Amino acid sequence: MLSLRALRRFLPALASALVAGSALADTYDVKLPPELSTSPKLCDYAPCKDVMPGATSFSERRGQPPFVEAYKDEAGQKKLLGYVMLSTDITDIPAYSGKPVVTLIGMDTTGHFTGVKILKHSEPILLLGIPEAALVKFNNQYLGKFVGDNIEIGKSRPEENLIGLDAITGATVTVIAQNQVMMTSGNEVAKQVGILKPVNRPQARFIASTATPSWAELVSDGSVQRLVVKAEEVGLKSDGRPYMDLWFGYLNEPSIGRAILGKYGYDGLMSRLSAGEHAIFIIKTAGMDSFKGSGFVRGGLYDRVQVRQDKDSFTFRDLDYVNLWGVSASGAPAFDESAIFIIRGKSFSAAYPWKLIFLGNKIDKETSTKTFANFDKEYWLDAKYLEGGRPKVVKPDPTWLKVWKERAVEIGAFTVFLLLISVAYASRDKLVRRSTHKNKWPVNAFKYTAWVVSIGFVGFTAMAQPSITQVLTWFHSLLFQWKWELFLSDPLIFVFWIFIIVTVFVWGRGFFCGWLCPFGSLSELLYKIGQAVGLKRFQFHLPQKLHDKLKWVKYAVFFGLLAVSFFNMGLAEKLAEVEPFKTTFLVGIMNRSWPYSLFAAGLLGLSIFTERPFCKYLCPLGAALAMPTTFRWFGLKRKEECTSCKACAKGCGSLAIDTKGNIDQRECMLCLDCMVLYYDDHACPPLAQERKRRTKAGQPLTPINGKGYYIPIHPAPADKKQEGAAA
Amino acid sequence: MSTEDIKHDDQTTVPGRRKFLNTAAFAGLAGAGLSVGLSACKQEAAAPAAAPAGAAPAAHGASDCGKYEVAPGQLDEYYSFSSGGHSGEVRIYGLPSGRLFKRIPVFNMDCLVGWGITNESKAIIGTKPDGSLKYHTGDTHHVHQTYVDGMYDCKYMFVNDKIHSRLARIRMDTMECDKITELPNIQGFHGTFPDKRDPVDEKINHTTRVFCGAEFSIPLPNDGSDMNDPTKYHSLFTCVDSESMEVRWQVLIDGNCDLVATSYDGKLAATNQYNTEMGAHYQDMMSSEHDACLFFNIARIEEAVKAGKTKTYGSSKVPVVDGTKAANADPKTALTCYVPIPKNPHGVNASPDGKYFVCSGKLSPTASVIQHDLVLKWFNGELKEAREAVVAEPEIGLGPLHTGFDNKGNAFTTLFLDSQIVKWNVEAAIQSFKGDKNAKVVLDRVDVQYQPGHGFTSMGETKAPDGKFFLSDNKFSKDRFLPVGPLHPETAQLIDISGDKMKVVADHAVYSEPHDSIIVRRDLVKTRQVYNLDEFPNAVKDPKESGVFRNGNKVTIKMVSQAPSFSLPEFTVKKGDEVTIILTNLDKVEDLTHGFAIPKYDINFLVNPQETKSVTFKADKLGVYWCYCTNFCHALHLEMRSRMIVEK
Q1: A420 by DSSP, 3-state: which?
Q2: Which of B608, B598, B610 is nearest to B540 (CA)?
Q3: Can you give the pLDDT at residue A718?
Q4: Which letter does DSSP use for residue B417 in this model?
Q5: Which DSSP string corresponds to A356-408?
Q6: Which residues of B touch A261 (CB under 8 A)?
Q7: Does the distance separating the beta carbons of A298 and B589 come in below 8 Å?
Q8: Which of these, B233, B209, B231, lies nearest to B221 by C-alpha position?
Q9: pLDDT of residue B85
Q10: Which residues of A touch B609 (CB under 8 A)?
């Protein structure tokens, strides 16, 4: 009830809204012809064609609950186009006003919605403030959606096969009721005409037990479940309390019911229930808000809690509510809000799993706009309560698993590719020995193959270019909520990341960056092509000193993004466009707006003239991987002479070798050029010197050992070695 | 420290009336000023309140009384169903909060819900041939429930009307009165109690009868004969069928009936008698040394009724059996047993273990404990004197009236003159009566403000009392509340009896005048949320059935309400028509009740969701009358109107 003060403010507004709103409020409390709900010829009184475009004629009402068939004339033949139903023929779910929104619904023969039209509503909320168009817009979300899908108000959750609908802010009861009306009506008709198989879950038969379990026992066997919604999950600042901390359970099972309600409470509750009705309880032990809300006061509908069993969802009216006085199970927590809700749907069975859904509003910190967010928790009675145990339930594969199955060949090929390249790299010692500074093909054959496959297959085809955003997501998941589904939803990226993490710690990030990163490969390939087509004279490296300063920029970019992501993930994702990956592979340079295209094209163009400019100075992903590379197991080999000899450093495209001959593993792309030199007795200065000395002295050229030296001719006395070292 | 040692010597033998009056005078002088109960909340902080898990309101604040408060959003633990005295109604409170939830009109009129205005309520209350109400007044005293296996089943409760000798039944799913029966040939119908099981048929382990005692003796039949010969006045004890509400039988007795109790085995009903002398004046009523607690052998009475050993009085067809002493000299065939107890007792209560009846002394400072199986023995001829059934008669204080019981064998008796509640142990009283001088009978006393009448414990009238609360319905509040003129509210004081010491934990102001209540655990009560349309034969189930239907000068207006409108925006009748309006509330949302008022025609009533009500009146004034919804229902509540046009 309104307080008097509220009423005083409200009534003038109401009066003016009534005057001004008459034109807007098209279907508010319009008088519908009584025949609409009684005449066999529904479509004489309802605009059926509006919800079934293309239909030329309609049948009379048929079926139970009733619907009509819509036909199209095709060469003189009547062709069934779909079905039209009047919501009030099927369900009387009331909306906020306590009265149903009379809705005409069209559905084609495949079960996809073709049209939704409101014939009459009594929602005062749509008279005041919220335009009726909002409801029309809401309804239009159904067009083209399949009646058999799990459609709910809130965010889509593809990993659970859940399709979300945008709610109307301020009219949540209305849209929840409307969703229930749409799905119930569509389902009823779809079952009748064979689009959907009727769900028939046998009712649970309970094993009569006289035990009275304690709260702890109920929790441990899953008879009581907990649904916690954190403050952050609804966009609120946490003050240590959760937003919602609910415990719930199923009450019809006698030993659970008696444990929770006591004998009298249980008997009393059961005496209220008819066959096929079920009771659940919910208590709130902590939280910032009410799980009942106050939507039920006017409209009779609880707009914050629902139960869902597969595709059937059950909302609660005020008449489905019974007071829960207390929980008699010993050790039960104290609570400040409680309820017993009655599930009155024929299809519900306690033998099968179901979910309690809490519908929350998520508040966006910047815009203060509210979006629906729903949270759920599964409940399935323990086998010990059920005669014959739990029935076998074939759960549909989660989306991630489906994707893995669908892309199995691709995933397999990719994995084999990664393994082959790894084997090749692991055999680098053999490859580099076969190569010379003039002919690096034994190495390059593998590397270039890797590049081409990476660019063509991994990058452009499979779009599996790893990105810094995944690192950020990973950080956030570690800190807040780890969801495997999130990572598993893209199998190639998932496999790639496992591979990257392993190889970074084994060989360093250069293996990914230098051999397998699609963009990196493209970048260096362009450089090599430039070299090959005669642009070599235009190609340059930045001076080492400048390079040594600029290389830190990418670390700054990485930490900058990470920092921003803690405050605003959305902004961080936008800023992550510093990676031209999306433009290059996912969308295509030609398909993006010019600043993005110019940036990507510029970087690639520059790559022709200088080796990997993006990788060297900007790439935050490279920076992120470079840090753990410090701890890699296997580095590249060096000789003692390397400290003074600059031969390798000169040829190092990555500019990763410093004046003391040390390789900066964080910068090294593992191109293996220096390793080719290492064994090349025509290129590696100490080795070439020795070769010349031996040739002069007529000594044989023994094979080069693992340390990059000729195997000494005589068993090495100490001074010989010294001599060799000095030479 | 306390005054009890001065005021009462519990070990003294049963005093005579003279001594008692002296003590009373002394007690009056001493006053109740030296109270032990005034600061009860702060005392005995350690007293455990054995609350059911999860149900107790969370303790908060420093004051011990805080734990008896019910915080916002929390629910009371108990219902208290209370009579409303000469307001004629029954009331529902929540305990421990003392919040008033509902007033159920029964014998009175109520213009809020339209009780006494709608045709349906008039039919229940009873009408004169012209259709007007037979009575507008009533005096409710005792509220008691139906039982299953010695426990409340919360199906019905019964309440008496002392003024017009009527028994009303309230159905507890809707908390509305559904039947009223007027008892023939009696006046001053005071005590009433349902039976708890059948005395013969083991299978009937629930209430089937309601017993009613008549306090004022009258000539039989009261048709103008024997008016000046009070020796010919009689009282009848009445049995009513709890389902049909028909009077089954009556018993002619010596003396009168005050309060009524029933045994847990269904075999006995009891009533205390304060006027065995059958005096017509106050001084005559106190002339003999003993009064009695009268027991009825239900099985034998019903056999006698079956055997036709009955007569009838006046126009009443109810069979009456003879339960007078003279006609029942042989215990082996007797229908009644008169157990002598000290003068002018008040209140008889059955102990939850089913073993005893406790009769309070009123003018005697004693309580008499009568053993149930000894009364049965008397009926078998195994007891020489009926008085031998009295197994204890402890002196407990001045003006004992009513007794409640806990789950530990203790009795709690209201002391009207002492203005106290006394806690005493029944078994100890029996030992003391046998001569055990060490038996500690009185365990505790607590002052109440002021002068308690009825007192009762939580679940105390069932076989499973919980020993948590005692409610003292005090007759006077004097200074306890903000003054509201000469007529004060009364005090219902909540006392925590779970510990050794009683603690007064709340003063609840109640409008005059509750007599008796029952305190019922909340989980036992199962109410409906909305009505069922099909239960009303005259329901207007569809707005399309609305309209004006004329049959001569009788006009029926059929209408439905759906927030925010009535299905007829106007209707026209002719002056002189007898108009019946039938209104069905088709709203299904819980708590969405509409009202319907017609100005100048003195009509207002409510229709709850899915309920149908009707009114009939003569359209005797020309003009336009705006009928409107009186019960706030919707944002457009003010617009919810209909126009009655009365034309020539």
Answers
A1: helix
A2: B610
A3: 55
A4: T
A5: EEEEEEEEPTTT--EEEEEEEEEE---GGGBTTSSPP--PPPPHHHHHHHHTH
A6: 523
A7: yes
A8: B233
A9: 95
A10: none
Helix, strand and coil content of chain A, in percent to the nearest 5, comes to: 45, 15, 35
B563 close to A (CB below 8 A): yes
List Cα–Cα distances, A210 to A256, A332, B151, in angstroms.
10, 19, 22
Write the DSSP string, A260-327. Answer: HHHHHHHHHHHHHPPTT-EEEEEEEEEESS-SS-SHHHHHSEEEEEEEEETTEEEEEEGGGEE-----
Q: How many CA atoms lie within 13 A of B288 on its CB side?
A: 14
pLDDT single digits (tens) A641-696: 888 888 888 888 888 888 888 888 899 999 998 888 888 888 888 888 888 988 89
DSSP helix/strand/coil, B397? coil
Asked whether the beta carbons of B426 and B358 are under 8 A apart, the reply is: yes
Cβ of B589 within 8 Å of Cβ of A318? The answer is yes
What pLDDT score was predicted for residue B38? 46
Token pair 């609120």 in the structure block, residue: A236
A137-182 pLDDT, tens digit each: 899 999 999 988 888 887 787 767 778 888 787 777 788 888 888 9
Pairs across A and B, CB distance < 8 A: 77
**Nearby residues of A504 by Cβ (< 8 Å), 6 or more positions away:** A511, A512, A625, A628, A629, A632
Token pair recorded at residue B190? 């005071």
For residue A99, list chain B residues with Cβ-Cβ distance below 8 A: 562
How many Å apart are CA A283 and CA A291, to the nearest integer? 9
Does B530 contact A319 at a Cβ distance shorter than 8 Å?
Answer: yes
How far, in Å, are A456, A546, B119, B560, B634 from residue B540 at the CA level?
76, 92, 16, 6, 21
Do A187 and A147 form a contact (C-beta atoms < 8 A)? yes
Residue numbers of chain A with a pLDDT score lower than 70 = 1-25, 124-125, 127-129, 159, 298-299, 366, 396, 398-399, 481, 483, 485-486, 715-727
Q: How far is CA A429 from CA A426, A469, A546, A638, A669, in A?
A: 8, 35, 33, 13, 16
Confidence of residue B63 (pLDDT cuts 50, 70, 90): low
Helix (H) or strand (E) holding A163: strand A162-165
- Torsion (CA) B600, B602, B603, B605 in degrees, nearest 10: 130
Q: B529: which chain A residues are within 8 Å (Cβ-Cβ)?
A: 318-319
Tokens for B480, please give them: 């306890």
CA distance A332 to chain B (A): 7
Both structure tokens of B127: 């009408």
Gap between the Cα atoms of B64 and B59, Å rounded? 8
Nearest to B468 by CA among B505, B516, B515: B505
Q: Are A657 and A663 in contact (CB under 8 A)?
A: yes
Q: Around A43, how many Cα atoms within 13 Å sit in the side-chain half-sphere? A: 23
Which residue type, as a one-letter code, is found at position A148?
G
Q: Which of B198, B201, B348, B327 has the alpha carbon at shortest distance from B264?
A: B198
Nearest to B588 by CA among A90, A317, A87: A317
Residue ranges of domains in chain B, CATH in brackets: 1-45+81-149+394-528 (2.130.10.10), 533-647 (2.60.40.420)
CA distance A641 to A727: 10
**C-alpha–C-alpha distance, residues A319 and A323, integer Å:** 11
Q: What percent of chain B shows pLDDT beyond 90?
A: 81
8 A C-beta contact, residue A287 and residue A243: yes
Length of chain B: 648
Q: Which of A14, A323, A334 sits opposite B635 (nearest CB)?
A: A14
Residue closest to B100 by CA, chosen among B385, B405, B521, B509: B509
